[in-house]
Amino acid sequence: xxxxxxxxxxxxxxxxxxxxxxxxxxxxxxxxxxxxxxxxxxxxxxxxxxxxxxxxxxxxxxxxxxxxxxxxxxxxxxxxxxxxxxxxxxxxxxxxxxxxxxxxx
Length: 105
Fold this sequence. Notes:
Layout lengths: L6 H15 E2 L5 E7 L2 E7 L9 E2 L3 H4 L2 E4 L2 E4 L2 H7 L22
């Protein structure tokens, strides 16, 4: 592993690439971490409520990819449909903070 000379510049470039090339907006957690006397970038991407994400230049039909083993494959219509979250009514059994009411400030 060689590391990078200006890790802050690489972190900024990665954040800008994600922001500019992927839609809907995706916000990865990017960290600079020490590893064997070098600095590495660790990017974590958590599940999103606005899936599927796609490459802007390819559009929503051709720009969705799925991970298969160590490869990236273009998603077909069925895979894109499965990636979209199901929206519907949500019910909660109890309030997050006992004693609070909806609409209270």
